[in-house]
Amino acid sequence: MNNAGGKGCVDSNIKTTSQSTVRALYWLGDDLRMADNAIFSDIAQHAQQLMIVYCIDPNWFRTTQYQAQYLGKHRLRFLLESLRALDEALNQYGQQLHIVYASAQKSLAYIIQAHDISRVYRSDHCGADEQTAWQSIQQQCPDIQYSTMTTQTLFHSQQLPFELAELAPTFSQFRKQVENINITAAADTISWLPPMVALKQQDKQLQAWLSYPDWVPQTQMMSNVFCGGEAQGLLQLECYFSSNLAHHYKEMRNELDGWECSTKFSPWLANGCLSARQVVSALQQFESQHGASQSSQWILYELIWREYFHWYGFKFNKQLFRFSGISGRKPLTSFYVQRIQAWKTASTPFPLVNALMKQLNDTGYMSNRGRQIVASCFVNELQCDWRYGAAYFQQQLIDYDVAVNWGNWQYLAGVGADPRGARHFNLEKQQQTYDPHGLFINAWLGREVLQQQDEVNAAYCMDSVDIADWPRS
Ligand SMILES: Cc1cc2nc3c(=O)[nH]c(=O)nc-3n(C[C@H](O)[C@H](O)[C@H](O)COP(=O)(O)OP(=O)(O)OC[C@H]3O[C@@H](n4cnc5c(N)ncnc54)[C@H](O)[C@@H]3O)c2cc1C
């Protein structure tokens, strides 16, 4: 059993073993870093041999029930870069990262048995599929030890002043409950790791799983300002806090574009290349040197939102994906295949939404304001089932985080942690406020679109784009 719901943070299901040598297997997930990683620290203390594995599952590239892939090409590129960087870092410890191209459920039990592994480590994960896979491996290999630890959240579960079942129904209540909890300082990188477990080189099945398969899409030719890996994440952390930007965060964070408008930590946080505690430690250091401001404190406020959604994911688990969310109220939306396709391919009647979706499709990133606008349009103007939008974000976003993504979508669709119900953003007002001169639309869609929109606006008014004329299929 995963310890997500319990109070302990380590060794949720350790069974006694007669073996004196701990031969550990670390199954990596959203924890692709060396520093501030409780699992590596525990391994350094308790294991004598170690195998480190990441599983890339063929199912991630198949179309899901929500008409999207689990992992699109931008996410894959960032992930592969992060894995490569971690492997290079591990080489300095005489270790190696083995990428297994098979589902964890299918491959890990076999690997564990073939290599006589006595303890398996895994970071706590609030995702339902991840928890199912973890339980399945324990059922397949019941006689070894299992350790789960917290690597993603700011707080350990035992620091929370309530049982998980009592998690506050709104963010504001949660924030008040946790605002005085001391955030543990980020830990340094460990100085030693045990030697590698020797791979069964002759094992044909294992060799097949370790060979790069043809079903993984190519990402070599793709470039992006976001480059995966721990060193790149730490560089962004250092660059951001060596500037004065934190003192302007609050007034700039709603901009639609611009590297400096927000921290851009999310892809590294989501993949675990950076920990939330490392961000808070860097923020505290910045404030000790340059003073705290409402703006710098707002960064912490947003990280508490992230924290809330993570515990929300642990608590609600499968309900994250339910049409009626956690509220139990079914929204008045449906599955309109052509509207969903238009939204995904940036060809709705709304230029601002199209520009934002083009940005997402081209880069795998979109600002928070942008995400709110396109999600609101999806649910309100296009009247589509929010889960199809969330699943498309899941495919596209390089910072995809199961709890934060599905939690935010629920919030906007009015079925989540918001007593006020669905959020409807007035698209015309949003455009006037955040893109008054059409620079964002122009940058992503080109000048003609703006001219066409001017003509449409002159003839009617923007509100007259009538979605009722759209196909109901
Ligand atoms: C519909 C929707 C889906 C989203 N999906 C994701 C997702 O899959 N992964 C993800 O990391 N963020 C998601 N967000 C939240 C937010 O948009 C991104 O975290 C943010 O835009 C990332 O850019 P940044 O790092 O520059 O953020 P900053 O504004 O600099 O914020 C700092 C950090 O705070 C956290 N944060 C900021 N906004 C939120 C928020 N609304 N909810 C929770 N945490 C937040 C992030 O970890 C972020 O890196 C989503 C928001 C919406 C509205």
Automatic annotation (TrEMBL):
Taxonomic superkingdom: Bacteria
Coiled-coil intervals, chain numbering: none
Annotated positions binding FAD: 249, 262-266, 399-401
Cofactor note text: Binds 1 5,10-methenyltetrahydrofolate (MTHF) per subunit. Binds 1 FAD per subunit.
Organism: Shewanella psychromarinicola
A Pfam cross-reference name: DNA_photolyase
Family, similarity comment: Belongs to the DNA photolyase class-1 family.
PROSITE patterns noted in UniProt: PHR_CRY_ALPHA_BETA
Known cofactor(s): (6R)-5,10-methylene-5,6,7,8-tetrahydrofolate; FAD
Name of the molecule in the record: Cryptochrome DASH
Keywords: Chromophore, FAD, Flavoprotein
GO BP of this protein: photoreactive repair
Limits of the Photolyase/cryptochrome alpha/beta domain: 22-154
Protein's job: May have a photoreceptor function.
Signal peptide (residue range): none
Example of a GO MF term: DNA binding
